[in-house]
Write a structure and sequence with these properties.
single chain, about 550 residues
């Protein structure tokens, strides 16, 4: 739901801060006061077109910020779009420049306007003459009909989708088995030869690095022998020349003599003892290394041969020995799949036939359920329309059969007959804005309890009505607001009387403001809307009667 709306320099609105509550919020005000700009600001936050003409004269830009309370599902979608959601609140911003490009931000991060539109589909539904309807597509109408059926029907839909997915997979396997026999056999031969070659090589992880190091050692035996010999001579001494070991040992003896005069030298002498032990061990290791350092042409040839065999197997498969072993595991799994009995073409054909039969069975059951739901939903909406001064109107729901698809074996199409003399036409065609808004209200009231909580905005829902019908509209808006947030722009006091939050749009010269009203202020606004003097006792009494009547109606809803 939308919590707050901040508007700056948008059309006639210089600055306005709106706070929406749960339940039903109404916006009222004189014609031309700027109620349309409030809806425009909301449309901008939902990814609507940014027209520079909406920027207030003299201002460089228009700015709109909205704070929405979102649940886990919408929160995940917002985060997928790059937004940050804090404590269940999402901030949406839109800036429209008088000259230049508009800017959109979602949760504090820049996003394209299309991201706002994607999220807006989950946040707010606007019903008005100039707005796109949520139910304009057959797919959306099908979703509404399916949701209306509740859990029993949705379980049938899920069973059909599983059957469809199974048939798609069965066809894929059948086609792969039927159309690629030669290719499969060639793949089996190729994988078998490669995996056998890898197995015969008996590799272990990191062996290519070990072979590379061994090659370097065997190729450079003489250089290694010369380097080790020099190191030993410097460490152990040669031809009467003392080595590092002799020099350190002499230093140790000198320090031991010094300890007779200063015992603090014992620590340094001890450290030299440790160094002598380490140097002596290094000398032994170098002697052993030099003793084993021999040229081995046969071993070098064997290493070259193994490296060549490894390089040949790596081509097109992996970058090193470790990767080649991982490739071999995957190749063996693929071989098992290719040679399994289930890949037999006849077996695959039978499985596809069985899967297609299951699709037809589940599709027929789903179609019967949809047909029953269509009749129930149509009758329920017609009953609502009778209470909304559209007694002759009829919502038809047509199921058009087609070959099985991911969502069933039929398309769903909503058709509206606004009055008995009119033909049925697709929803949204052939009806006035006011009629269409009332049809959408009836649909939302009937189906609203099946949906997750969202925000509905109605404009022109009270166009061309009054009296008892206006009260019925207000009552239904209040009923819908029990499970959803509802915002309605109205000029009828009978509708406004049902509001939980009442916002008044007022124009003073060239500037529009928006203020909340309650108690006495609300009574005055209702009196004004009924055409009376808001300060007269009779008008105020009539307004109070409306409020009392709305309260009684709400308690009975």
């Amino acid at each position: 739901m939308i919590s707050t709306l901040r508007i700056r320099s948008l059309g006639v609105i210089a600055a306005a801060d709106l706070e929406f509550g749960r339940g039903l919020t109404v916006l009222t005000g004189e014609t031309g006061a700027g109620k349309t700009m409030v809806l425009t600001s909301l449309q901008l936050l939902l990814g609507g077109r940014a027209d520079p003409a909406v920027v207030r004269t003299g201002a460089p830009r228009a700015e709109v910020d909205g704070v929405f309370e979102v649940g886990d599902r919408v929160g995940v979608l917002a985060e997928d779009l790059g937004a940050e959601v804090e404590d269940g609140e999402l901030i949406v911003s839109r800036t429209v420049a008088g000259q230049g490009r508009s800017r959109a931000r979602l949760g504090g991060r820049p996003v394209p306007a299309s991201a706002l539109a994607r999220l807006g589909e989950e946040l707010v539904t606007i019903h008005g003459q100039s707005d796109q309807m949520r139910l304009r597509h057959s797919s959306a109408q099908r979703e509404v009909l399916d949701a209306f059926g509740g859990e029993p029907h949705l379980s049938l839909l899920e069973a059909y989708r599983e059957a469809w997915a199974g048939a798609v997979e069965a066809r894929r396997r059948r086609d792969e088995g039927r159309d690629s026999v030669e290719a499969r056999e060639a793949e089996v031969r190729s994988l078998s030869e490669a995996t056998e070659a890898v197995a015969a090589l008996d590799l272990h992880e990191g062996e290519d690095d070990e072979l590379r190091a061994e090659t370097e050692r065997l190729t450079n035996v003489e250089d290694l022998r010369e380097a080790v010999g020099r190191a030993r001579a410097l460490l152990l001494g040669a031809e009467g020349t003392p080595g590092a070991l002799d020099l350190v040992r002499g230093a140790q003896e000198a320090l031991r003599e010094g300890t007779a005069f200063d015992r603090d030298l014992e620590d340094q002498a001890g450290r030299l003892t440790a160094s002598l032990l380490e140097l002596d061990a290094v000398g032994d290791d170098l002697t052993s290394y030099e003793g084993h350092l021999e040229a081995d042409p046969q071993r070098l040839a064997a290493v070259h041969e193994r490296r060549a065999a490894l390089r040949e197997l790596l081509v097109g498969r992996a970058a090193d020995a470790t990767g080649l072993l991982a490739w071999q595991e995957a190749a063996l799994r693929r071989l098992e799949e290719l040679t399994a009995p289930a890949t037999d073409p006849e077996v695959l054909e039978r499985r596809l036939h069985d899967a297609q039969s299951e699709v037809l069975r589940a599709g027929a059951e789903l179609a019967r359920s949809r047909a029953a739901l269509a009749r129930t939903l149509s009758h329920a909406v017609d009953a609502e329309l009778r209470g909304l001064a559209m007694g002759g109107a009829h919502l038809g729901i047509r199921l058009v059969g087609h070959k099985p698809g991911p969502q069933g074996t039929e398309d769903v199409e909503f058709l509206l007959r606004p009055h008995p003399e009119a033909p049925e036409r697709p929803l949204g065609q052939g009806a006035s804005g006011g009629e269409l808004s009332r049809v959408m209200l009836a649909l939302e009231v009937v189906t609203g309890s099946q949906e997750h909580p969202r925000t509905f905005v109605f404009d022109e829902v009270d166009a061309g009505i009054g009296g008892r019908t206006a009260t019925e509209v207000g009552s239904r808006l209040a009923r819908l607001a029990r499970t959803h947030q509802v915002v309605v722009v109205t000029h009828l006091a009978q509708v406004a009387a049902f509001a939980d939050v009442h916002l008044v749009v007022e124009k003073d010269g060239a500037t529009t403001t928006v203020r909340p009203v309650a108690d006495g202020g609300r009574v005055e606004e209702l009196a004004r809307m009924m055409g009376g003097d808001p300060h007269s006792e009779a008008a105020r009494r009539h307004a109070l009667e409306l409020l009392d009547g709305a309260g009684v109606q709400q308690s009975q809803v």
